Request: fold
Amino acid sequence: MIGEILKGMGTTLKHLFMPPVTIQYPEVERPVRYRFKGRHELKRYDNGLEKCIGCSLCAAACPADAIFVEAAENTNEERYSPGERYASVYEINMMRCIFCGYCEDACPTQAIVLEDKYELSFYDRASSIYTKEMLLTVVPEQGIPTPQVSRPGTYDRSIPDMENPR
Reply:
């Protein structure tokens, strides 16, 4: 019995002189792991067009039924994505989302990505629904904001031919 007490006291003394591992959260943010799944983002191509083509595969793959997508047709006068359609309404209910990443895996154009942002807090249920405007990334420097005007026949595929589509 005395041996166990001395062993426990030795462990306590060993950790007494080690530096603390506490992270001062609001001032210092903890780095996340490589495979961390955080807040969703809707990506854009380098020319400013949205990657989402409104196919609703992410909504079909979501086990929590947290994603709602409503598609609309692109025209040459008003183009949002390179395909025939675009997501006119894209909403994610973050109260239902389980951050599984199935939406990211199901997307054929890699439009929806779970990034490393983990500060998600809301005061009411209405603010937990993230809309398309909240999820879209900013337009790249050389890009043009959507809707764009395009020449007829310019975009005949869902994924445009680009040097390095990111």
Notes: The radius of gyration is 23 Å. Residues 82 and 159 are 6 Å apart (CA to CA). The first strand starts at residue 40 and ends at 42. The mean pLDDT is 89.
